[in-house]
Amino acid sequence: MKAGVIAVQGDVAEHAAAVRNAAAAHDETAEVVEVRDAGIVPDCDVLLMPGGESTTISRLIHREGIAAEIRDHVAAGKPVLATCAGLIVCSTDAKDDRVDPLGLVDVSVDRNAFGRQKDSFEAKIPVTGLDDPFHAVFIRAPAIDDVGDGVETLATVDGRPVAVRDGPVVATAFHPELTDDPRVHDLAFFPESEVVA
Ligand code: GLN
């Protein structure tokens, strides 16, 4: 399995490790490639859109011609896991002129919505499709406010969606790559089966 991590900015190495672990649980090997230029995404089976700074990621993927390739990847039904800033970039409405969203996940988001008090926090949350709660790490996380028809909410915190699936894209407001638990990567890339932690 060839996994591309969009690496224009953000946390890349952790996702590489997590996708390798998820693949290993299925007796598969993930070859991880870092995507900084156009021409790499078309060869990838799955993609990861990491956290970081959504305004920067958005600007660079459009400038480098990667944005259109990500759209084609999803149009072909191939999986994507988008986390935190990745979710913002994949949304339909980021409510911020500096983000030109890809419109791959039919949700609107509020950047940094959890506010100063809860800037960063951790919570054990139930996630649809996982047997046991997932330890979710939130860092200046966006909130998802409007969820379109056809979007499945996989997890909530305080009644707000924090993980969703829209077709081949799984998007989380939290950072599943920051724990050793590969189950969210597994949900995204091996949707037919589940790994028990
Ligand atoms: N707050 C960041 C943004 O709006 C996202 C933070 C993150 O990815 N951890 O882009």
TrEMBL record:
GO cellular component, one term: glutaminase complex
Protein origin, superkingdom: Archaea
GO molecular function, one term: transferase activity
Enzyme Commission number(s) of this protein: 4.3.3.6, 3.5.1.2
HAMAP family, sorted: PdxT
Entry similarity comment: Belongs to the glutaminase PdxT/SNO family.
Name used for this protein in its record: Pyridoxal 5'-phosphate synthase subunit PdxT
Organism: Halorubrum hochstenium ATCC 700873
Lineage: Archaea, Methanobacteriati, Methanobacteriota, Stenosarchaea group, Halobacteria
